[in-house]
Amino acid sequence: MQQDDIDPQVFDLYDEYCHTDMPRREFLSKAAALTLIGGGSALVMAQALLPRYAEAQVVSFTDKRIKATYVDYASPGGTSGKMQGYLVKPEGPGPFPAVIVIHENRGLKPYIEDVARRAAVDGFLALAPDGLYPVGGYPGNDDDGKALQRSLDRGQLMTDLLNSAEYVKAHPLSTGKLGAVGFCFGGGAVNYLAVQMGEGLNAGVPFYGAAVKSEDVSKIKAALLVQYAEDDARVNAMRPAFEAALKANGVQHEMQTYPDTRHGFHNYSTPRYNEAAAKLAWSRTIAFFKEHLG
After folding, report:
1. Of 33, 73, 164, 288, which residue is the least packed, with the fewest Cβ within 10 Å?
2. Which of 86, 100, 130 lies closest to 201, judged by CA?
């Protein structure tokens, strides 16, 4: 089922399901109760929106251009003091500029691992941390992952991500230059890292992520490429104040909005995916990192 086949009411319900503690059963039940003006089954549309990760692989983990492995590292002040991430090294001896790839609000699912592999293919040492690792790791499905992530202490989770960024930045294969890219929750985490790391972060690319408080923007020293979906009322409502604060504080930035897109348009595994916009946004991301990380 394509994006144009899905009623906006179902998209709105799915967005609520993704960003609240609504369980899958309730999501599907509410969808089944919808009456659509144009006809059709809202339940079928809702089921089509659920992710299919087998279809979300652009770069195989066996690709000869990269080497992927899971790594453990210390995370003082985090959820458990320990973290794990998916580290993907490009072919060649290095060193390479480093990029941290931050997941949505469900832990390190297959789509994000694939994004890390894509970054490595383009020459970056990529680390995708699993914020759920201290409580057992991504559980293999999004519903349990969402519940697990909501159960974590937010401050400790963000500390785990900050420690992950510091880990890959200081990795022996890293040049010491660091970029960050994230999606949804991960987009907001990129903005958080930009505030917390100051000059320690060179470039950030948040995809449809929550903005930081305007009074914290003065701490940002990284260049930012802020990616927005056109139809994303919750995130886009934060844009005017964020943009004004970035300008007022002289933060190097650009903002891109992609027509005919919804929140999550980069994620290949659901009909929210917009192929043209996703490819353009990713090509801009890579070009931005090459410009600012070398």
Report:
1. 33
2. 100
- Give the whole-angstrom CA distance, residue 263 versus residue 243: 19
Provide the residue range defining the domain that includes 11: 3-49
Give how many domains the chain has, as a whole number: 2
Q: Is 112 within 8 Å of 128 (Cβ atoms)? A: yes
For residues 15 and 157, membership in a common domain is answered with no
CA proximity to 149, closest of 129, 133, 128, 165: 133
Q: What is the pLDDT of residues 101-128, one digit of tens each?
A: 999 999 999 999 999 999 999 999 999 9
- SS3 category, 38: coil
Q: What is the pLDDT of residues 17-52, one digit of tens each?
A: 877 878 777 877 887 787 776 667 777 777 766 676
CATH of the domain at 203: 3.40.50.1820
State how far the Cα of 89 lies from the Cα of 258, in Å rounded to an integer: 30
**Three-state SS at 294:** coil
Q: Are strands 82-90 and 96-102 parallel, antiparallel or unpaired?
A: unpaired
Q: Is residue 58, in this structure, part of any structural domain at all?
A: no
> Do residue 244 and residue 196 come from a single domain?
yes
pLDDT for 39 equals 63
Radius of gyration of the chain (CA): 18
Q: Which helix (H) or strand (E) holds 31?
A: helix 24-32
What does DSSP say about strands 82-90 and 66-74: parallel, antiparallel, or unpaired?
Answer: antiparallel
* Residue 59 resides in a domain: no
| Residue 123, amino acid | G
Contacts of 174 (CB under 8 A, 6+ apart): 94, 95, 96, 97, 98, 125, 168
One-letter amino acid at 69 equals T
